[in-house]
Amino acid sequence: MCAGIVVAVFVTFSTAAFSETVTVVIETRIKEKTLSFEAGMKSTQTLKLNFDAQKLTSDFSTGVTNIAVTDLKSVRDKFVVEGVNFTKTAANFIAKGQTASGVLFMPDIDYKFSITVDIAAREVVLSGCHDGYPSYKVLVNNSQVYDFDQEFLGALLGTCDTDVGSITKNF
């Protein structure tokens, strides 16, 4: 009589790579340079992409403008995310930001970025536009994806007149 042998094989596939949260930070900052007024952070938009929940959350903070002994908060703050689309391994969206100094005659700081994050490829694709002033930086999970060094103060005039061609970076 032959003894029966039963072999059970269990195979599990980890989805850990696809169940993460990716953080995208868009920062506007006036750098210390000749003829740069009120150096410092002007706005930070933080976007968290949760691939398990297929959800994007957005938050922002803004800086202040110091005039003599007064701190003026920003005005005309509008930070939105549009066209959010998730798959299991990628998400794309458009992030728009607008803020202005509490000095009411100053023009807005504007940007519009189209962003695709692919967690399987560990890659981000960014394109869009922004003003020529101040400086702009985009980070994905603390990896720098884009860094624009401000032009002169007059480059703040106009809306989104600096074109950002398609950039692909790993994070």
Highlighted features:
5-stranded antiparallel beta sheet; mainly beta; 0% helix; single chain; 171 residues
Explain what the structure shows.
This protein has no helices and 12 strands. The model is unreliable at 4-17 (pLDDT under 50). 0% of the residues lie in helices and 58% in strands. The chain has one domain. By secondary structure, the chain is mostly beta strands. Strand 4 (64-67) and strand 5 (70-73) form a beta hairpin. The strands form 3 sheets. The protein has a 5-stranded antiparallel beta sheet with strand order 3-2-1-10-11, with no helix packed on it.
Layout of SSEs?
Blueprint: E1 21-30, E2 40-50, E3 55-62, E4 64-67, E5 70-73, E6 75-86, E7 90-100, E8 109-118, E9 123-130, E10 135-140, E11 143-148, E12 162-170
Antiparallel strand pairs: 1-2, 1-10, 2-3, 4-5, 6-7, 7-8, 8-9, 9-12, 10-11
